[in-house]
Design goal:
The chain has 381 residues and is mainly α. The protein has helices at residues 11-19, 48-51, 56-68, 110-135, 141-163, 177-180, 230-257, 267-300, 304-312, 327-330, 349-353, 358-373, and strands at residues 95-96, 103-104, 188-190, 195-197, 202-204, 209-211, 216-218, 223-225. Helix 4 crosses helix 8, helix 5 packs antiparallel against helix 7 and helix 7 (230-257) packs across helix 8 (267-300). Bound molecules: zinc ion (2 copies). One zinc ion binds at residues 204, 206-207, 217, 224. GO terms for molecular function: protein-cysteine S-palmitoyltransferase activity.
């Protein structure tokens, strides 16, 4: 039995504690109660096997439509899913980062808005240059096509990172049952939000919210990077990294190895390629360092802000965090879904976000009772 004064460092013990489903350690709770989410917008119940059967067009449609209609709801009992309606607040087509806004987007940071636009301008510029090179015969058409597809994927991930709620903690947030029963866990409040502050969350002054598992606020994305949008951010980094490597290899090969006449660019194109080479080198260095940064955070469970705090207080050696399971970043989809900027379906929304809400606890209780009464509906128990 653990006491608050003797936090365990035993990995398997801590792992076992975390593997316990929420509410399972509550003696009055039903034996298996899990929450599933779809779209990172609230908990949704789903039978994992059936949620995986959704077709690609359906998944893409859901990913696109939840950007603008996060409160589409289907609460009939025959559905595999239900959505949390943000504590039953009516949804409005408004933009912002507070609880009443329907579409998540940071509006109050001009620097972030400009920097996010610069990303689009630079990516568009590089894609146009590659297309022009292909049109003049300087590079193969297939290479330009590949580059354009990669750029489009990177920009789609950029949009999803910017418009996805990174894991804002609502005013009604409460600790999960597992957290309440964890003796060595100190629960805290945010003095600015006046609400429960989940472990590993931080208050972002730009978003003006507490963000679950916040890594950092990225001005290039004009958004925080947290539990809700880490997948999109990782994909953006990977696609941009591949783009920069592709262009650098292409230009390097052209410069050093291609002696044909077609490889000689026009004067204008030569200048464009020179600028793009510099941009690609910068993008390569920046995304490489960010990918290593994010990988370190995933493998150690210590995000950028936590790492800086621990280094400042010299407490890195005493860190007891576990690595973040990939299912808590990419959802429970099979690996080939991970490469598309679709919203992840988390295996357990509350555990990923680090908090629950009274409404969610109540609804899960009701769903469980429904599934007890009617075994053909709801969750498998
Ligand atoms: Zn806060
Ligand atoms: Zn932020």
């Amino acid at each position: 039995m653990m006491t608050p004064s003797s936090p365990t460092n035993d990995y398997s013990t801590r792992q076992r504690q975390r593997q316990d489903l929420p509410y399972r350690d509550d003696p009055n709770a039903p034996p298996r109660l899990e929450s599933y989410t779809f779209g990172g917008l609230g908990p949704l119940h789903a039978l994992p096997e059936k949620s995986k059967q959704l077709s690609l067009p359906k998944r893409l449609w859901n990913a696109a439509s939840t950007c603008c209609q996060p409160h589409l709801n289907n609460n009939d009992n025959t559905s595999y899913y239900y959505t949390d309606t943000f504590n039953d607040l009516p949804w409005t087509c408004s933009i912002g980062t507070s609880d009443e806004h329907g579409i998540w987007l940071n509006r109050y940071d001009p620097a972030g808005t400009i920097m996010a636009l610069i990303v689009w301008i630079l990516m568009g510029y590089s894609s146009l240059t590659m297309t022009w090179l292909a049109a003049t015969g300087g590079i193969p058409v297939s290479l330009a096509l590949l580059y354009t597809v990669l750029t489009a994927l990177a920009l789609a991930c950029h949009v999803k990172t910017s418009l996805t709620d990174p894991g804002a903690v609502p005013p009604s947030a409460v600790p999960t049952a597992a957290q309440r029963h964890q003796a060595d866990l100190k629960l805290s409040m945010c003095s600015q939000c006046q609400t429960f502050k989940p472990p590993h969350s931080h208050h972002c002054r730009i978003c003006n919210r507490c963000i679950s598992r916040m890594d950092h606020h990225c001005p290039w994305m004009n958004n925080c990077i947290g539990a809700g949008n880490l997948k999109h951010f990782v994909l953006f980094l990977v696609y941009t990294w591949i783009c920069s490597v592709t262009s650098l290899l292409t230009f390097g090969w052209n410069y050093f190895f291609c002696a044909e006449e077609a490889c000689v660019f026009t004067v204008v194109l030569t200048q464009l390629v020179r600028v793009m080479t510099l941009l690609s080198i910068g993008a390569f260095l920046f995304t490489s360092s960010m990918i290593m940064n994010v990988l370190y955070g995933i493998l150690t469970g210590i995000g950028t802000i936590d790492r800086l705090k621990k280094k400042a207080t010299n407490t890195m050696d005493t860190a007891v965090e576990d690595s973040i399971p990939l299912a808590h970043i990419f959802g429970q989809d099979p690996w080939y879904w991970w490469w598309l900027p679709t919203d992840p379906q988390f295996p357990d929304y509350d555990r990923v976000m680090g908090f629950s809400t009274p409404q969610r606890l109540l609804r899960e209780q009701m769903l469980w009772q429904q599934s007890e009464d009617s075994p053909s509906h709801g969750m498998s128990v």
